[in-house]
Write a sequence for this structure.
């Protein structure tokens, strides 16, 4: 009886620990080789044959096709530079410059990876659409209400993610986070 | 007390094995991964244009709304495939994925350096069976080796402005992927 009870206990611990760790690893998007610059994170290795089992499992779980490294690299931000989660009811300002790339696109998704409905049917920007300052830097306002300049509507969703994709770029596996890769800052300006 | 502690640690150790096993098995058992989602709408060895993602519906999560996308779900068991993709006005890329959605090769319009990206896709065995002289005469042919018999090719063309999306779509609409021994389709 004690043996049965003991093995049942051990198996229950195994199930909770094992499945719990898998669930946590896949929902948090854990994978090796993350490249974090400011509030932006990319996993350049996920777009290669060297993708580790964790990266492969989270690709399979979300159902997305990762950007191949020869095509480009994709950076995601879910929080601003102070660690505050991006809130669609707030005004968030992206400002600065980007690393060299032939094209880049910025898109806004809810946490399930779906586009967010809004009145102007604008889901993102490409590098060619952006209005820039004289020195080449830009400012994008991500806000629920219309703003002058580069306005990306949030549709008022509670939480969202910004994805900045660089196409035909040298940013990749060998890139070290640092001064040579300038990424725009993410700053929450005002919240209701 | 010590007995339960030991059982707990034994269970935790076993849990570690369970964790690693589930992570490794995950891609093989997933029913909602990109390949399975596209298998429902894309026939084998044909280029299928995907509808532009909208908030209501998208073929896959995290699709880039600035791109027109088409996929070719391939099966090389009958022989190698030939892929031709005309280059659109801004940026065109072709990415190759295995059955388990791992990207193994990508090329863009500038790397291809022509107005049409032309590629031959075959398995490693099919490549090694190719007659050698043919390999030499076709030195400018790009040959891609697929690590798996089935997989996905994603053809993507950028619309730098939303108004140009239809132009990008029509550019990749003429892309073709077909078996090499099949006669050329007349347009």
């Amino acid at each position: 009886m004690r043996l049965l009870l003991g093995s049942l206990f051990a198996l229950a611990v195994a199930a909770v620990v094992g499945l719990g760790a898998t669930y946590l690893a896949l929902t948090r998007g854990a994978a090796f080789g993350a490249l974090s610059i400011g509030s932006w994170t990319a996993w350049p290795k996920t777009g290669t044959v060297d993708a580790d089992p964790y990266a492969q499992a989270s690709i399979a779980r979300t159902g997305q096709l990762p950007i191949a490294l020869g095509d480009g690299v994709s950076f995601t931000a879910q929080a601003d530079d102070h660690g505050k989660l991006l809130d669609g009811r707030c005004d968030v300002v992206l400002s600065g410059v980007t690393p060299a790339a032939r094209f880049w696109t910025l898109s806004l998704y809810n946490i399930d990876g779906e586009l967010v409905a809004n009145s102007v049917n604008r889901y993102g920007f490409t590098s060619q659409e952006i209005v820039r300052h004289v020195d080449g830097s830009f400012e994008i306002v991500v806000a629920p209400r219309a703003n002058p300049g580069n306005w990306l509507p949030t549709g008022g969703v509670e939480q969202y993610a910004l994805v900045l994709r660089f196409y035909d770029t040298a940013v990749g596996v060998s890139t070290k986070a640092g001064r040579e890769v300038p990424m725009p800052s993410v700053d929450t300006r005002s919240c209701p | 007390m010590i007995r339960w502690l030991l059982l707990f640690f034994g269970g935790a150790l076993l849990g570690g094995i369970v964790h690693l096993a589930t992570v490794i098995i995950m891609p093989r058992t997933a029913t909602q991964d990109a390949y399975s989602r596209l298998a429902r709408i894309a026939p084998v060895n044909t280029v299928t244009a995907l509808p532009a993602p909208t908030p209501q519906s998208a073929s896959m999560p995290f699709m880039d709304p600035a791109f027109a996308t088409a996929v070719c779900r391939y099966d090389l068991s009958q022989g190698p495939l030939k892929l031709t993709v005309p280059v659109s006005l801004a940026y065109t890329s072709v990415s190759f994925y295995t059955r388990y959605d791992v990207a193994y090769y990508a090329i863009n319009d500038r790397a291809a350096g022509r107005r049409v990206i032309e590629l031959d896709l075959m398995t490693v065995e099919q490549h090694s069976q190719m007659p050698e002289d043919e390999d030499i005469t076709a030195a400018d042919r790009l040959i891609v080796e697929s690590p798996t018999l089935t997989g996905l090719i994603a053809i993507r063309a950028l619309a730098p402005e939303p108004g140009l999306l239809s132009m990008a779509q029509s550019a990749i609409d003429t892309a073709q992927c077909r078996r090499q021994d099949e006669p050329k389709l007349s347009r």
The two ends of chain B are 79 Å apart (CA to CA).
